[in-house]
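Late entry, evening session. Most of the bench is empty. Finally got around to the prediction I had been postponing all week. Sequence below, unchanged from the version circulated by S.P.
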Amino acid sequence: MYSIQRKEDIPYLLKYHRAKDMVNIMKYFPDLSPVDDLAVVVDQEDYLKHQDELGNLTSIRNGNPTTEPCMKSIPVKEIHPNILEVLEDIKKENPKGVLILFHLNVEATERYGRYAGISLGVSLGNFVYIDAVSRGFDGREVLKGISCHERYQIPWTDLRRISIDNFHEYQTFRIPEDDYQTSREERISFLESCGISKEVAEENVPVSYQDIPDFIWLDIIKNILKVLEKEEDVLRNDGFLEFNLSGHTEGKRFRPWQMVDDQRM
């Protein structure tokens, strides 16, 4: 087991996709990260050996070594799934795959109960590109290129002047209603595959498209776009020239899960 609480373990955390992505965002955007504790478990024996130490880490992801392509996400049906069964599924996918356990500093919500999923592509000093999906969806759709409901393109030179009053001037795409209906059907099917009833999914994914609320965009302006402009030199010095921030909202705030650098993109 490797834990972010032990400084000597951090280089080992950085050897795994998704663990590395989460460590990055905890370092560069600590006020945004929904994660405040993190550990990597390599197999079932490792988990059983350290189970008492891991009791507080109730959220999970899976990851491959950074020397291999990123492992596909393994969906789970519950907020608190059976860890040994999840590890078994991971090893079936890749014997070198690991379980990433973490603690959320926000209350975990069901994946159909969020205002938005958002992915920000950052080309440092050039542009910020934003793809987003609205209520009932999450970061999965935009990160995997499955769907996009709203898209924005912001020149780096405009980061200083951007505000909620002019933000929508940078919108380059809003999904047509017919295309939204297709994405809604696909989303409901995916939620069903995660063990969520069709009735619950249909109730929580809006029948017609609802724009992402301005309070979400205001949060992103204040806590990401303005921070990017302010911390440009720090990011450049650390080699973050092209990267992505992605995740979903928890409550009325965007809480990105990961900061993916160009080595994985």
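Two things to note before I forget:
The radius of gyration is 19 Å.
The longest strand covers residues 242-250.
Will write this up properly tomorrow.
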